[in-house]
Predict the structure.
Amino acid sequence: MRSNKLTLKEIKASLIKEKVKELFLEANYQISLDLMNLLEENLKKETSPLGQYALEAIIENNKIALSERLPLCQDTGLGVLFLELGQNVHIVEGDLKEAINQGVREAYEEGYFRKLVVDDPLFERKNTKTNTPAIIYTDIVPGDNLKILAIPKGFGAENMSTLAMLKPSDGKDEIINFILETVKKAGANPCPPTIIGIGIGGTIDQSMIIAKKAIFRKIGQHNTNPKYASLEEEILEKINCLGIGPAGLGGNITSLAVHIDYLPTHIAGLPVAVNICCHSARYARGVI
């Protein structure tokens, strides 16, 4: 007789803690090879001498950080994690959220990274001295693995991110105008050249979440929908005509990439979120 008993994969909480620690150490010391190559490619395209100087300094900084195991930036980021938790996974010997936060704590302690989290955002603003709690998003997916995307998100760029609830009749042109105005207003604050994540659709909160996650799509990989892929290219071209340039010093390389993701939405709405990331787009991925 065939058994229908479900087989679960057990993952120890301690293993999750160690993986999270490993990922945040890795992410704070190095950017992806794809992004490094893109910076070097754009150095050749930059026409402004000051812009070239800024890009050369950025590239040199990245090389030193990797070779010396030093943080890429003095803003070592708020810990943001996107999890894909397989529905056949059973976490044992501990709690998922606590394991993740302990991994973040240990990474920031071992790496001597600045601890940047305050417990009360308005009144006391007391530093937790652990860089926790982290921000955790969890999707339940088929399978028996836990996939982790770990992001130390700096707030020079995060502070320049924004959201608009447009009317469905506004269409593509108004979306482009809103994004360009956001980038112009941000100016040098998000440490350009930037990567722009754009979330369209869903609800007000979902649009911002998918915008943030879209930033960390593989560099050079466009949206699989040809219309949105074309829109990514059009927006990037227009951003790079704004003249802001690397470090805001002027030039034709203000952004390195524009990544759009979208979700179904209500017939009455057109949420558009813009999440900005600096040239130090730090992240690391892991699977357990």
